[in-house]
Amino acid sequence: MKVSAGSGDRYVVGIDFGTLSGRALVVRVDDGAELGTAVHAYRHGVMDTVLAADGRPLPADWALQDPEDYRDVLRHAVPAALAASGVDPARVVGVGIDFTACTVLPTLADGTPLCELPDLRSRPHAWVKLWKHHAAQPQADRINALAHERGEPWIGRYGGRISAEWQYAKGLQLLEEDPEVYHRADRWIEAADWIVWQLCGVETRNVCTAGYKGIHQDGRYPSRDYLAALHPDFADFVAKLDGPLAPLGARAGGLTARAAAWTGLPEGIAVAVGNVDAHVTAAAAQALEPGRLVAIMGTSTCLVVNGTRPAEVTGMCGVVDGGISAGSWGYEAGQSAVGDIFGWFVAHAAPAGYASHEALTEAAAAQPVGAHGLVALDWWNGNRSLLVNHDLSGVVVGLTLATRPPDVYRALLESTAYGTRMIIEAFAEAGVPVRELIVAGGLTGNRLLMQIYADVTKRPLGIIGSTQGPALGSAIHAAVAAGAYPDVPAASAAMGRVDRDVYRPDPERARAYDALYAEYRRLHDHFGRGAEDMLLRLRAIRNAARRAADPDPADPAAVSLEVVA
Questions:
Q1: Burial annotation 137-153 (CB, 10 A radius, 16+ → b, else e)
Q2: What is the pLDDT of residues 265-307, one digit of tens each?
Q3: How far is Cα 15 from Cα 22, in angstroms, rounded to an integer?
Q4: Could you tell me which of 346, 352, 395, 398 has the C-alpha nearest to residue 372?
Q5: Which residues, at least 6 apart from 384, have a Cβ–Cβ distance to it below 8 Å?
Q6: Whether residue 102 has a cis bond before it, omega within 30° of 0
Q7: CA distances (Å), 402 to each of 162, 392, 528, in order?
Q8: Cis omega (within 30 of 0) on the bond before 538?
Q9: d(CA 218, CA 220)
Q10: How far is CA 222 from CA 263, 365, 423, 499, in A?
Q11: C-alpha–C-alpha distance, residues 321 and 429, integer Å
C-alpha cells in the first residue's frame, strides 16, 4: 500500500552514512511511515589501495574516505528523498544522522578537514580513517599492554582490549607516522559528530561514540599521565577529541542556511545529536528493552543490547551508560566481516555457474547440517569480538577433492553464526542475558542465513520491519530532538517496527550444529588464544613483502615490519 503525505502531518529526515553510500529517508512523525528514500554512492568509495588525490599506493590494512563524499549525500540524497516522498519541505521539523564508527578525521578548529588543505592533500594521514582501517594494530597492542600494566580502571569496560579501529589507536598511529599532521590537527572527531557540525554549525560529541570509541567512562577520559607514557607528545590527545557531550536524542542545534541550501530543508529545524548506525537501529527495531540483542548485519555485523547494570564482558567493544538509550547500560560487540566474506567468495572464488549469492544459497540450502564436513573461522577482516585482533585472518578446515563451492559458501555462512553465538555466550556468562535476537540490515533477505542463525544460537529470531533500519532510527531521534516525543523509548514505540519470531530454531538442526560449534570453538581458541600464532606470522610476512615491493610508501615515517618470531 502506498503511503501518502498529509497536508497537516509533520515529518523528519533520517540520514544513514554507510561504508559505501549514504541514504536519506523521509518519515512521518506520528506513526513512522516511510514516504521516500534515496541513496547516493560515495564518489571515492573506500580508498584501500591508492590515495585518490595522487594515486600513490597505500600500505596494507589502510581504509580512507573523502569527507566531501559525505557532504554530497546531503546535496543529493536528501533532496531526492524529499522529491520521492511528495512531502512539502516546510512540514519537516527535524533531521538526524547516523554513521559508521569508528570513522574519524583530523580537522582545524573550525572543522575544516586537514585533507582539504592544499599542502596536505597528498598526506594519507590527513584523510578520514574509515572504521575498517586496521593498520593501527601495533598501536592498539601497546595501548592494551600499558593499560593492564598500570591497572587502568577503564580497560575492563572494554572487555580488556581496546580495538585498532578506535580513536586512540588511530590517533597514536597518526602521531607516530606523521607527527606534522598530528600537531596541525586541532580536533580529532568522529565523522558522526563532524557531519552534525556541518549541518548545524555547532560542535558536539555524542555520548555513544565518546563512550565506545573514545574511552569516556565515569565522566572522564584516560589520564594525561597514561597517554604520555604511550608517547610524550600523545599527552594532549584528549584536548583534540574532547567537546561538549550530548545525550542521544538531544538537539545539537538548528539547521544552518548553508546546510538548508544543500538539503532543501527549512533553515533552523532541529538537528539531532549524532549516533552510530548500529546503536540507532535499536530504536527502529523496538529493541530498547534489556535482553533484546540487535544484530545489524551488512558488510560487517554490530551487535548491541541494553542491560540493567554494568558488567565486564571479555572481548566486548564496550559497555556505556546511556550508550544506546538513556537509563540503561548499552553493550556493543561486533564481527569485522560478514557480508564482506560472502561477497568475497562470490567475486573471487566461485566458478561459473555458482558466481551469485542466489545460486550458492539454493545449492547450500539443500544440504543437511554438517554434510559438507567443513568448519571455518570468520576472521577475514580480523576479529572484533571476542579476541579484538585485526591481524587474524580466515581459515577453512576440512577441504577435500569432493568439496564443492556451495559447501564452502555454507561453511562461511555458518562461521559467522558461530561467531555470533560466542558473543551471546560471553554476554550470558557475564550476567547480561540475551533472550531474543533481532536482525536488521541488508542480509535479512537471505532466508537460509537467517535460519542458520536461529538454529546455531538456539534463539527466536525477529526481523526489523523496515529495510532502512539505521535511517529510521535516525529519524526517530530527530523526532525527539524536535520535541515531538518526550524521549527515545516513546518515539521508538510509536515509530519503530519489528516482526518477532520470524525464524525459530529447529531442535534437530540445533543439536547437529552443537557438534560443529564445538569444533569451531576448538579452532577459534587454537589460532586465536595463543596456542598457535601462525596467522599473525603470515600477516607479518605479507605486510613486510608489500612494504619491500613499494618504492614510494604512502607513510614514509612508518618503520619496517619485522616478521613475528
A1: bbbbbbbbeebeeeebe
A2: 999 999 999 999 999 999 999 999 999 999 999 989 999 999 9
A3: 7
A4: 398
A5: 163, 165, 300, 317, 333, 334, 335, 336, 390
A6: yes
A7: 42, 28, 29
A8: no
A9: 6
A10: 38, 49, 27, 42
A11: 20
Strand pairing category for 395-397 and 270-272: unpaired
Cell 529519524 sits on residue: 475
Q: Which three cell numbers stand for residue 45?
A: 568509495
Q: Which amino acid is at 503?
A: Y
Contact status, residue 421 vs residue 457, Cβ threshold 8 Å:
yes
pLDDT in the model for residue 473? 98
Q: Which of 364, 366, 367, 396 is nearest to 380 (CA)?
A: 396
How many Cα atoms are found within 13 Å in the side-chain-facing hemisphere of 405? 21
Q: Which residues contact 492 (CB under 8 A, 6 or more apart)?
A: 283, 284, 286, 288, 476
| Residue 372, helix vs strand vs coil | coil
Residues 6 or more apart from 220 whose CB is under 8 A from it? none
Distance CA 513, CA 371 (A): 11
Residue bearing cell 572494554: 158
**pTM above 0.85?**
yes
